[in-house]
Every structure is written in structure tokens, then in C-alpha cells.
Write a structure and sequence with these properties.
By secondary structure, the protein is mostly helical. It has helices at about 1-15, 20-30, 35-60, 65-85, 105-115, 120-130, 135-155, 155-160, 165-185. The longest helix has 29 residues, at about 35-60. It is globular, with a radius of gyration of 16 Å.
Length: about 190
Amino acid sequence: MEALLVSTGLVAIAEIGDKTQLLAILLASRFRKPVPILLGILAATLANHGLAGLVGQLAGDWLSGPWMRWILGLAFLAFAAWALVPDRLEDDEAPPVLKAHSVFLTTAVAFFVVEMGDKTQVATVALGARFDNLLLVVLGTTLGMMLANAPAVLLGEVAARKLPLNLVRLVAAAAFAATGVWVLLAG
């Protein structure tokens, strides 16, 4: 249960203001169909974070030992610093406009690609290495992603303009730093 709660909390906070959340707002304003957009985000996140969590779990099994705790702890401290850097959606990362394809498919593909190498995906790798229960890690990171992106899709640009993103980045950085310290001291 700890894996689920930690994974959900970290990703939900880290996702606010992230480029994938900006993508969710862009998709919502372009297509104005929240249900297929949310289902596309869900499908993409399950696939992406499932693979990331599996990589983390395999790395955690392969690299077991007391020094793995140092790698993970320092990784979470690096995520804390990374969370302080504002994200923006690059022009070349905007979703393709595919008239023949569904909103669901466009969302799923765009989200999967934009999430590659993103801090929430890298955090999922680290969480997969930290916790023994891959299913709870993936469910937690996916739930965190949905908690952050569902309001963005449903409320769109209004929510994005009202959120104090600097404060959210500080809270995300504090959460990652606390997790890093916790991992380093839990030995």
C-alpha cells in the first residue's frame, strides 16, 4: 500500500505544470472531447509507466545491495532539483492533427511520446526499483497522472492560469527531496 500512496502523491504533485499537463490542456482546447482525451491519457500512462516501472524493477533486482539505496536517494534529490525547472510544451512536441484518427488515438500516441524521458517517467523507474510491487507502483503513478491531468482536461486553460505554478513546483521539489532523504536514511 505504501508503494501506491507514495507513487500517487509524488506523480500527482510533480505533474502539475509539467509538459504533459500542458499537452492535456492543448488537447482539451483543440478537441473539446474530455472523455476520449482522458481515456487516451489513461491508456498512454498505463503503457508508458508500466514499461518504466518494469525497467526500474529489473534494475532494482539486478543492482540490489546497500549502494542501490544511495543511487535511488540521490536520484530523488535530483528529481527535486528538476521539479524546480518550469516545463513548457515545445512546438515540435505538439500533438499531430490527424483528421482520420480518433481523439483517443491522437491523445494516447501524443501522451506516450511526450512522456518519454519526462520526470514522471524517470520517477516511475526509480519507484519501480524502490518498491517490490510493480502493480501498485504503476497504478499509483497512473492515478497521480490522472489526478493532475483530469482537472486540466475538464477545466482547461482557466485552471492553468489560476494555479500558482511556482508554489506547486516548490511542493513537488520538497516531496521528491523528502523521498530522497527517506530512502537514504531507511537503511
